[in-house]
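Handout, section B. The chain below has 310 residues.
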Amino acid sequence: MKSIINLKKFILFPVFILFCLFSFAKSSLLYAQDRIVAIVNNEVITQKDVDDFNNFIRAQLSQEYKGKELEAKIAASQKDLLNRLIEDRLILQEANKEKITYDVSRVKARIEDVKKRYNSDIEFQKDLMKQGLTQADIERRIREQFLMFTIVENKVRSKISVDPDEVTEFYEQNKKDFVAPEGRELDAFAFENEDLAKSFSYSLRSGQKVEDLASRYPFTVNKITTGNNQELRKEIEDAVVDLGINEDSGPVRIDDKYYVFKVTNIVPSRQLSLNEAHNEIHAFLLEKKAQEKLTNWLNELKKKSYIKIS
């Protein structure tokens, strides 16, 4: 009997130690997450808030960027992360003071837009888990974004304007920056396989006309113009950048088709008129004023607020 009791003690003691170690590790993790990193008036920002915000940024950026480019964008976002959280908290506090509301249906619509980027709801939920988020986290952040947008619109953007004279003055001072780049007008011939594209390209280069080749080659053709602020795929830009008039690119694979690009015309660069540049300048000046006014407004909020960073 005594030996059995001793054996039980021998078995239970390590289990007890493991339980204590696990409990300590878990409580340490929770403590780290609950650690206060900043106080903004009567609210605290915890390490968990910072981590959640970081995860939200990663989730947003991962919809647009991948691999090294994604990591570079995330690294750039870390530089001023806590300050952004503090400013967001100040803006939300102002929104609450002003009793700003949001449209629930718009929040739901935004969530549905995000979900459409995934093949299924299960895939969406898995990606959230990978980012350390839940759907409730995303919904909360979207609600906050609507509130912040509304209060900033009311307090900042609605109070700024750009006069026509400002647009004209900016244009005259920066005229050299408003130049339409050289462009190329292209015929884009699409083929189902590379052999057809190669044969067609060879026939073009040997001097045969497209009209004569149309009956021999099954292709579709589209007109494309480069250099007119239209975003083209890099494969197309690289293929035609050095081509002259009536020269072709040779076969270029894009997705599941092969293309031959033929330059039909080269449009030289030219100075844009004030009228052509007006909208771009107006948008730039409006955004510049908005950023300046937003910075001043946030600085005033900070002066009137109690902010302590741990």
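Note. The domain at 35-155 is CATH 1.10.4030.10 (Triger factor/SurA peptide-binding fold). Compare this with the example in section A.
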